[in-house]
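## tool: complex_structure
## caller: assistant
## args:
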Amino acid sequence: MAVTVRVPTPLRRLTDGQGEVEVDAKTVREAIEKLEEQYPGFKERLLDENGELRRFVNLYLNDEDIRFLKGADTELKDGDVLSIVPAIAGGM
Amino acid sequence: MAKVKGLRCRECGRDYPVEPIHVCEFCFGPLEVVYDYEEIRKSISREKIEKGPKSLWRYVDLLPVENPTVGLTAGFTPLKKAEKLGEVLGLRNLYIKDDSVNHPTLSFKDRVVSVAISKAKEFGFDTAACASTGNLANSVAAHCAQAGLSCYVFIPANLETQKIFGSLVFNPTVVAVEGTYDDVNRLCSEIANDQGWAFVNINIRPYYAEGSKTLAFEVVEQLGWRAPDAVVAPAASGSLYTKIWKGLKELKEVGLIDSVNTRMCGAQAEGCSPIAQAWKEGRDFIKPVRPSTIAKSIAIGNPADGIYALQTTRESGGDWETATDEEIIEGMKLLAETEGIFTETAGGTTIAVLKKLAQRGAFDPDEVVVAYITGNGYKTLEVLDGHLSEPVRIQATLKDFKEKVLARV
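## result:
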């Protein structure tokens, strides 16, 4: 499945400044593995030592928080957009 | 910048320079301003502060701005001894920190925004923006008008009408997004990647958030240079709540007070209480929720500073409580009827929670307790529809006056 990944500013050093990259993956977990292959450094920034999504990283599949879906096991289909968004923002 | 050393990741401790950035490149942790307290301690004093401007800028030594240029009238709001409310709640030393009359836009946001926009000017931005539940949008729009910056504010489309007008009058671009605050925030985080704008609560967030410390500084000074025994503050992202604690600790750090034994109590609306729920269940992580409450200004389901708020509660020996929509309205009315202060739903939440905590004996009757009122009720009038008595309608005759008004009692 060809999926577009939106990359936030703090990670663009890894992608030579690109804000969007393509990966081929069936699940969110696999997408992270593929990102790591193409742009080493992604995995350790997104996942903690136990392979769980870091608590300050939010992933959105087509604008829906994957924690409200099936987390890292959420399935992907052709044309999906996966956004990596820092959790720290906003608020009172 | 002698007083500011730089930014540091709150999670992994990596250091960063003073730039418009807000998250760590390695772990996505939040960046925080780090000060040289030893240097500050040499020059700061109670006397110097007391001679300073009657605004939050009297504490400029502990803020990350060199030359404040915007929001010069924000802060230094009244600390009111709440005799009548205290009597109702059985508290003899209850105080209300009244940011419902903050200048210029009647909420505590004028504190954080005056710091953020001053900093944005220092960085050389020509455009500022924010994601907001309303109060922040009002304040950013007003301060951009003052500063001559272009302004974009992003709000959930279902906000209270008064709060939308309260931004539009300053002539920014108001973008009403279909969705919750969390949706707006996520969208803005992505927009902030590419626009080169000063997003006050995204890439300017480390500086912006520091403004909330002045809520602690002022209360301590107004109490005659002592920290309160307990405070009750509303929490949405948890930023204000954690920064009050940071402010108290800094005053001790730089030698302005000897001790801090303040219990930090947090207030959330039951329909959006991810931090209070985590506290009650003994969790040290936050489960995001979908907000459903009339307290829209604190309806953040995915609180960025939630885990730090929980740390603050543990560290200070504090507590959490929640209030239902009905209790929030009752809280607004109780504060208005006893103290003559008209607050919005967030303040209603704080008062309802203060009441619950008092009723379950969380405070000693003689303790100095401070409740933070962060917003103004005239901005959310519509929530009171159907909850207040009706005007007594009469003809312009003495007969009607006697029969319909005097006879009522």
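## assistant note: The CA atoms of residues 215 and 305 of chain B lie 17 Å apart. DSSP finds 15 helices and 13 strands in chain B. Handing back to user.
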